[in-house]
Amino acid sequence: MFRRPLDFLNSLPARGDLVEIRLGPQRAWMVCHPELVHRMLRDTHTFDKGGPQYERLRALMGNGVVTCPHAEHRRQRRLLQPTFRPAAVAARTDLMAEEAESLCRDWRSGQQVDVSAATLSLTTRLISRLLLSDSLGPAAADEVRHCLTAIVRGLFVRTVVPVDVLFRLPTPANRRYRRAVERVRELIDAAIAERRRGTPRDDLLELLLAEAEDGAIPAGDREVHDQLVSLLLTGSESPSMCLASAFSLLAQHPEVERRLHAEVDTVLAGRLPGVDDLPRLVYTRSVLTETLRHSPPGWLFTRVTTRETELAGRRLPRGTTVLYSPYLLHHDPTSFPEPDRFLPERRLEGDAAAGPHGALIPFAAGNRKCIGDLFSMAEMTVALATVAARWRLRHPAGRIAPPRPGATLGPRSLTMICTARADAPGGTAPHAVTLAPGATTAAPGVEKARRGGDNGVHHA
After folding, report:
1. Domains (ranges, CATH) in the chain?
2. Residue 431 — pLDDT band, cuts 50, 70, 90?
């Protein structure tokens, strides 16, 4: 689990639909069938957010909408929902395009670009603008990006080795993690204090401060802080990982890249994407959705039972840690034939694209589905289309590093060489072209979908 987590996860469905594993000294159960995962995610009263992962996340993020227990979630989600409604997201499309264009404005053909840093810088700026307008300036946003690097490295080991004494030792890694956590909290507190002294803005912070003054937020300033920290961290890291993975995968699949270029050239004709273009960027969105299947940033999650319950024929006592993995579900060949292949065309297959029993769950499911899923998909679609209309990105010579699991999954230090589309061999300047015909990707020998619980319970 610690040394080769992705291989370990892929080995588990062969052992059953519910597999007992160890997390350090603790026993836990991994749910390996999508039908059972959906049952668990719909029953948030029984399978609440908890276990080693959320114990660590609460220490980092407090008790915001990402980490709060079931009893508090409905109120918190209703409080935040106006910021993430479709109309509110659509109103931010021009801002997304402007930030994406500025991301690559100064690139030069032949230049090596730190893609991981660039995408994280972009998503940090966008989520901070949504939450805080300009209260978190460029320097502070850049500092958050650097803090995130230390935080995501520390969170995974704290989840799979939940032995607190190890993380109280004054090791360099522990000190880096604690400093990063403290600095993010300080930056958010400074932004809140600045807003209280300054001019009101149209953002989430303003909404939260108004609700705190009216008494709608019971914890007042503490909850304002927790909501901002949790949304800033999750809203920066996950979409940046997805974008970096998408650029890496496109460079390895030139036919997919050509079809993407054809679409953005036709739809955008050289201009920045606007809100009316998003429904027309069908293949662009398919590339991102397939990236979320192939390399889901949120790849492993924990829950804890609040009462004795039954799952896959097994009685689970109260307080049992239960895990599920989007990566495991997305790479099970019974749901997605040839799961290691990157095939955006399978995302064009309508309802079947989600796989049997809704196996595709990059944003979770049920009433605790990610509140920012629409915002994330919009910002990633705009960013991918904006960059792809102007640039090709290529891996330097040598071995391509696989995605690295941490608190999230994706390339951590992805450096690529950029080439202006007009300068590339066979390249075109951004203008309308004819779309390539749809490719067929149906794989032979599709395995029959199994029902949840059929294989009983085994131990690993």
Report:
1. 5-436 (1.10.630.10)
2. very low
Name the residue with higher pLDDT: 137 or 186. 186
Q: How many residues does the chain have?
A: 460
CB within 8 Å of 270: residues ≥ 6 apart: 389, 429, 430, 431
Phi/psi of residue 323, nearest 5 degrees: -115, 155
pLDDT at 430 over 90: no
H-type alpha helices, 133-214: 138-160, 164-167, 172-197, 204-214
| Contact in structure between 290 and 355 (CB atoms under 8 Å) | no
Q: b/e map of 47-83 (b: 16 or more CB within 10 Å)?
A: bbbbbbbbbbbbebbbbbbbbbebebbeebbebbeeb
Distance CA 226, CA 407 (A): 19
Q: Report the alpha-carbon distance of residue 75 to residue 40 in Å, rounded.
A: 21
In the sheet that holds 391-394, the strands lie side by side as 112-114, 415-420, 391-394
The helix, strand and coil proportions of the chain, stated in percent and rounded to the nearest 5, come to 55, 10, 35
pTM of the model: 0.88
Do the beta carbons of residue 416 and residue 104 sit within 8 Å? no
CA dihedral 452, 454, 459, 460 (to 10 degrees): -60
